[in-house]
Amino acid sequence: MRLMRNNVAQLSITQKLVFTLLFLFFLILIIRSNFSNSPPQIQTHLSNNNSNQKTTTNENDCSPNDISPVQQTCTKTPSFLAKALVHYVTTNVTPQQTLKEISVSMRILEKKSPCNFLVFGLGHDSLMWAALNHGGRTVFLEEDKSWIEQIRRRIPGLESYHVAYDTKLHQADELMKIGAEDEACKVVGDPRFSTCRLALKNLPSDVYDTQWDLIMVDAPTGWVTDAPGRMTAIYTAGIMARNRESGGESEVFVHDVDRPVEDKFSKAFLCEGYLTQQEGRLRHFTIPSHRGLLERPFCP
Asked: Which residues are CB-contacts of 69 (< 8 A; sequence separation ≥ 6)?
């Protein structure tokens, strides 16, 4: 996501049209769903005169002057979706992920939303993720305090928190060795109480207590040696998925897998056996709960 900030690409007319159509398609699906699941609410009122004539009105009537006997509920475009649509139609900034990559996560959200969606990173695509999870909870974890403030001013309403990382990208090989050799890194539990060097222990308490249906790792910064790298974010996402309530499963996505750290750490700690799909630079893993299943190996 940081690459996206420093290298803002101009949208061509074709790109903007495709992206807008994608949002319109999802918007239509939600409106149709709301319409089919919301039966008309009908009230009957006696007229003020003494006749037996009755008039029927709808609480959500779109046309007050329409006096037809039965009227259907008027379904408005959800506010968050409307804001997202206007935002992306009028901006010159495109999300870092490609349309094909976004479509992978969107298909899962179509099935599971409204749901709990945790995103490592805050960027120009954040409003899109929140809108696609309309009615659910979408939380963003970001390393840069000043960037959080910028986004909050431009897009109020997003739930985001600052995270301080204590790793550097040049430590990746050392951390991979620790993750492979330290048995504590194979223990499934609350990351706050883990002794594994890779576990993030300073996230907001509510992040650990929530059952996350989707987790997207698209941060922190990971392309310069002094950047935090995504080693601990990927590992912690995998532990959270395994530690969710028994019987559940989490969908975990990692972006930029064309880079060594994202490639190696996602395979090692999210496990190739849980890999569901790869599209471009995005990998999708479906990780079942390991809670209470001591016989289940860390990787299948």
From this structure: 56
User: Over 70: is that where the pLDDT of 87 sits?
Assistant: no
Model confidence over 183-213: pLDDT tens digits? 999 999 999 999 999 999 999 999 999 999 9
Q: How many residues in the chain?
A: 300
DSSP string, 71-120: -PPP-PPPHHHHHHHHHHHH-S---SS-HHHHHHHHHHHHHH-S-EEEEE
The closest of 244, 291, 237, 243 to 262, measured between CA atoms, is 237
pTM for this entry = 0.76
- Residues 214, 251 contacting (CB under 8 angstroms): yes
295 falls in which pLDDT band (50, 70, 90)?
confident
Question: Cα angle vertex 141, ends 140, 147, to 5°?
Answer: 90
- How many other CB atoms sit within 10 Å of the CB of residue 262? 24
Structure tokens at 63: 């046309």
